[in-house]
Specification:
The complex is a heterodimer. By secondary structure, chain A is mainly alpha-helical. Chain A is built from 52 helices and 28 strands. In chain A, strand 8 and strand 9 form a beta hairpin. The longest helix of chain A is centred in the middle third of the chain and has 37 residues. Chain B is of the alpha/beta class. Chain B folds into 2 domains: 214 residues, 3-Layer(aba) Sandwich (Rossmann fold); 86 residues, Helicase, Ruva Protein, domain 3 (Orthogonal Bundle), CATH 1.10.8. Chain B has 12 helices and 7 strands. Chain B has a 7-stranded mixed beta sheet with strand order 3-2-1-4-5-7-6. In chain B, helix 4 packs parallel to helix 6. Chain B is globular. The two termini of chain B are 37 Å apart. The chains are: A mainly alpha, B alpha/beta. At the A-B interface, strand 6, strand 7, strand 8 and helix 28 of A face helix 3 and helix 12 of B. Chain B: Pfam families: RrnaAD (PF00398). Chain B: It is an enzyme of class 2 (transferase).
Amino acid sequence: MLSSRLSAAPAERMCRHIGGRRYSPRAFRGSHGSTRGYATSSKPANASVAYAVQTSNDYSAPPFPLSSSPKPPPSIYPALSSSLPSRIPLTLLPTPLPVGESSPLNTHFFPDSSVQHTFSVMDALLRDGYDVPRAARMFDSLRRSPEARSTLDVDLYNSFLGAYLTEALKETTRGHDRSAWLNSLWQLFGDLTSRASKWIVRPNRESFAIALLALVKFSDTSDTPVINVTEPTKEAFLRVLLEQHVMLSDLMKAPLLQYDIEACSRLLRVAALDSGRADIAMELGKAVFSAAPDQLEGIPEVLAVTAPKFPVLTRILRVRGKRIRQVPSPSEGDQTPFNLQSMRDYLEQVRLGRASLHDDPTARQRLMEESAYQVAAQRWRHEAEGLAKLSIPGGSMQKTRLKNWMWEWYQTMIERLDNEIPTLEEQESVKSSVHTSLGTYLHGGIAPYLRLLATDKMATMTITELLRYSCGMEGGVRTTRAAVSLGRAIEIEHDAEVNMASRANEPNAVLTSSEGGLTELAAIRRAARETTDLSEHVPEWTQAIRARVGSFLLDALMDVATVSRTGRRPSTGEDVSEEQPAFAHTYEFLHGRKIGMIKLNDELAAQLSSEPIRDALHPRQLPMLIPPRPWIDVEKGGYMYSKSRAFISAAPVMRFKDSLEQSSFLRSASSAGHLESMFAALDVLGSTPWTINRPIFDVVLTVWNTGEAFPKLPPVGLDLEDPPKPADYEVNPTARRDYVRVMSQNIQKRLENHSIRCDVNYKMEIARAFLGERFYFPHNVDFRGRAYPVPPNLNHMGDDLCRGLLTFADKKALGERGFRWLKIHVANKFGYDKASLEERVNWTMEHLDDIYDSATKPLEGRRWWLGADDPWQCLAACIELHNALESPNPLEFESSLPVHQDGTCNGLQHYAALGGDGQGAQQVNLDVGDRPADVYTFVADMVEKRLEEAAEKGHPLAERLKGRIARKVVKQTVMTTVYGVTFVGARDQIRRQLDAIPGLTQTENESYSLAVYVAKITLACIGDLFGGARSIQGWLTQVAGLISKSIPPERIDMLLNVAEKSPGSEPDKHEGRVKRSMSALVREQMTSMIWTTPLGMPVVQPYRKQVKKQIFTALQTIFIADPNLPSEVSPRKQASAFPPNFIHSLDATHMMLTALGCRDKQLTFASVHDSYWTHAASIDEMSETIRDTFVRLHSADILGNLLLEIEQRYKDYKIPVSSVKGQKPHNFRRSIRRKLGHPPPADAEPAAAADDTSEQLWAAATGLLRFTHQDYEKLSAQSEIAVEMNSTPKMGDADADEHVDEDADARADEDGDEKPRARAKRLKGKEIVMTRFINLTEILPPLPPKGAFDIQKIKDSLYFFS
Amino acid sequence: PAPQLTAYPGVGSLTRALLEHPPSVVKRVIAIEDSPGLLPFLEPLAAADPRLHIIRANPFRWETYSDLMASPLMADVARHPWEEVHPGLQLMCRMPLTIGSEQLMSQFLRFAPNRAWLFQYGRLPMGFLLPYSLWDRLSAKPLDPTRCKLTVMTEATCHTRLSLPLATLQPYAAHFHPSPSQQDLRRAQTAVHISDITARNKGKQLGHPYVSASFTPRTEQVVRRAGLDHWDYVTRMMFVSRAQPVSEAIDRLGLGGKSLLKQLKFDTSKLVKELEVHEWTQVVDAFVDWPFAPSVYMIQGMLEDVDAVRSSKA
């Protein structure tokens, strides 16, 4: 990621701290007493200089280079604890500039696609010395551009230093000018080290190592001196090293120098002696002596086969040429340590690894991650050859047909790629380069990218990926999705290869461990940070490049892939064979839009459905065999080789959406040390060892193989009967319609069934492969900080089946309390969870007979467990309890089963705590109660009561509904109220429930009006019960709404300057009027809602308008959103999504604090958002931690801190009065209503607000907006302000179709042009308005008052989590 | 003397005109209308003339016709051989300005090959008042930009012609109900000749031109009984690539569709929009006899068509 190219030091500067009530203005200045970072700077050019000064590197520390025990710099990382930091550190970055504007600072934090493109092209050109001169030209031009310069970093400089050296090292041939390359090297090195350097970047160890190697190889005293080179003398070089405070002992450890370590050391020692520094010479002698041998010596035999063995000087010494084929031809076959003949499936690797590397899980994990794709191709060949040998027609042949095809496609596709890529290169070299806005060269070609991986690997990937995307799809996959995903897969694989190669000699990575408390964890994390990180930086590709690379490969595959089919000709009855394309690119019309699809041949689809492709599973999506690497940075942690990036589907610490902004914030916060606690909490989650629950696995397998339908297990064939074609099909349109509908539904159901079976099959395959293993789930977070396991198929966050299949790998003796909790767990999982704990224990004991029957005869017995809410987990609990009871002493029974403690409507719990709602707190069990309170029943009762009252008054609807409102009618609405359910949403939820009540509604109209009526009452009841929560929700919505309409002060200055130039207007500095078109003002709305979780993680809401770009690819023109192009925010979405996101950021914090707390007590911990798991024996300890952390979290003034943060973060941000007037109608109505004694309406959700009925819900939300109708009148009454009321573009509408999708793949959206509607709207906004600006902070509504509930009570509440 | 059927009679101007004929010419007029806003216009007419029978039903629903055919009102309608045009029964229909009209037309036409629906009585002549845009799609010539699947289906089943000069029914507001608003009129230009019709007023605005067209089923139906689904599928899929040569577009019919080309006896470099009915016939025949004709996609594609048929519940 580019923004990481610049060091984080400035971010550190921009990070300030706020604390609870200790806030004073000075505190915000930060401990450095520095001036404000970027924000006060109205001249961006200065900012970049200021920025440059702050940029530091690894080599700034000790003055004396050889001190053997350098004093470590004061750590920026806070000590680990499960307490909250006393001050919440803020990360402040600039707001992105509107589309089309640029500044160095903006380019630095939000590099656009052309910059990103330039970097990735340069990287591709440098790989294997592919085209260094062209890369060098691009680099020079970047360095000349004042804007682009801010994006350069030392890694890039080093890449070029290394590339020049590599070129110089090549064999001398005709036209090869070694001295020219060396001169380029020394010139660049001079620039990099010059004290008066105008360049921003400063050198690091690798820079010096390259230079030193150049001296060793080519200086006058070397074996191969080169003349005509302006290189520094040895003494001068040593001087530079000393000036730059390079620790020579450290420099000597650079991997690059390891083959020439003696020569390097000698050279420096001579230089030192010549300069009269005998001390240095002596230290150097020691340093070389102590250079430790490689600790990974044991593994290379395996690595050598699975990954091409690169020389130590990875990038530098790799020479141009064809990559090593990774699937050896038969004659080479014996070289592999695998027994190919016995290799059945891909996951066999886990087992294989076990055989050859039995007691080294680390090596096995590496093996798995490295050999992902090769194994697939090897198996195709194996099976295809097996087929050839057999050549028996019939069933067995049928089975291997798919593999046979794949092997054929693979071979022909390699051939084709080997021919096509050089052709493409030639074509592209003819085309001229393109100038970009940055003055850099942007070459349109993709050939450099296609050289990054061996053609055979690309062929394998194209085949497996395309088949994977098509699995379970309706006979095809959208072109855009397939192309972008494939391009992304190629990118990830390239990245992984680079890192595997560069780390082949690296000592074992530091791993997290499940042992020890927080002190031990902190030590592990420190060690991980101190380990030399050899991973290379590979610039990210642009979406356009991914799409084009993907299309190119897909096109190649589709061109060569055929299947043979045999069929009978209807007219003659003869058998016909045809060789048909396996895939075809077509267009389909979907909702009036033309969508490119890749379709599968029917024959292929049929094969796929009878034979799931295991190749589709990627090991970087499987559980790990060793604890994950600790997270030490955004991209460092988790899998061995997953140095993976923001926008690709591998696993960085956060699952980003299209938000470059979020990624910049996260990186800055990470390098400033703010994320330490969050990273540590993820380490805790990742360190939990799991294993497969064998008895459950056996039952599932038995059921699976019978093909019977079971909970979460779809049957083999759906028991669906196709209706006979009606006799009057041709003449009766109604009959025809009904027939076609049923047929089509059946097709749909079968497809769905197949798709679910594919999914379960993956889960089972993984479970089988991991049987008896101890494994781990690396975790990462979403943009609100909620944690998720990375492996997507089988994890403890999955459905009941997944959860049932998993159990802790470690066991713990139950003890008396654990025994009791195990019984409660059985009741909970069956669904008997509303009773008191005592009653649950009794219930379980009363059902022992059933439990025993289920445990001992799960399938043959009465199948009591199938009636449970969570059948598989219930069965697991039954078996565990049975085993415990049958053991000699149940209290000593070693149990591994995770026992759960779930929050009662966790979102409402946080709201109730925030608002201090006494009654609400009781209903969600914050308060002490004898029995668990059930908020759904309570609300249902409240609704019933109101219905009775209304019925007495003769309300006809109330009379019909009376006595029919059960818990489940209101449940979903109560649950989703936290997530800001709208009135319309609530109405539909309730309507579904009412429709399900037999005999209640007859017609559509009836059901509609009943639903409206019940929804109204339900929402009113929730509002009454959680008054505090409601007003907080309203407050949050309004604040985010205002912020998303605010404009940073620099931009206001700019707008005013423009106004200055226009005659006749009188600018006065900040409160000036300005004449701008509405669209220009809207264009400036770039501010998103940003806040910091109590753990220090900045949350940036990603909701912005999508700008789609047209990209020409080999297959078709596609339209994709450019994630690098932040466009205007969607104020409506920003506002309505803020309350739920905010609450999620709190529940995520609570979970992480609990994780850390449990770790401190050395408990095993796992979580599914608001469900916390540990061993039965540890429940009491965990419960205490849960309550402690919750109380601690809410004892801080969370909302007060949020307000302080907003006041600081958005200081001097301004809002055009003309856009606040958007709120006017509500305010107006509200003030009128207030006079009339009505409650005010909400403007949280326009859809709901438009509906008159929702107004009553917001009874508590009075006085939220300080900017009242009167203020508005005052502001707009002044004569010089002309505000055109009707010209405000309705931003909300334009993004109505915006989808918020967690899935990163969904970003690649479909072909479609801008809607004419949106265009017309934009034109409409062109009217000129005069407006004033008001300070955002001045119109922030005051915090709603807090209720009197005492948060400490939670500590004694039994049912808070239970 | 012939019974006349009018569907969507509206305020009844056409019905009134029919009733002006003497009973020797017009024996009975059956008006199918269920719009509560329009019935008050028809009811006085029925009261005044016993020949008018109002069927309160929706002309878009198929049950309407089957019910009607079973009713005594139609009992005296004789069945005539397909070779002759039915001398008695006639259908008059003013197509409303909705998207459903196109579906309805398509459904009417699809009955001809099977001699179903009113065609049970024989080759029924039909008169339609159509929005010009719809007529344009029904009657487009090869290479016309509006030529589509519906055009091919029309050509395959009926002879069509404009029964009145365009100008006769212009301007819209002088002839039709409901009256366009001032705003509608500003948008709609009066068109007297075909050449007056610009893209701008070919749309579906109230006030745009209506035409009067007559449709008579062909004696020779090229679409075979039970062949409709194939015609639907083939024309729908190929028209997706309407501007491509048949040799390319044929792949739309299924993977490996190119193998059908050898069965085609016309120049397959012709564009899809250029094909005439006899050429379409060859494509459909080849498809029907193709061992690898995709069955699943056909069902899914048909769903779109049949979903347009109004459910009897709605």
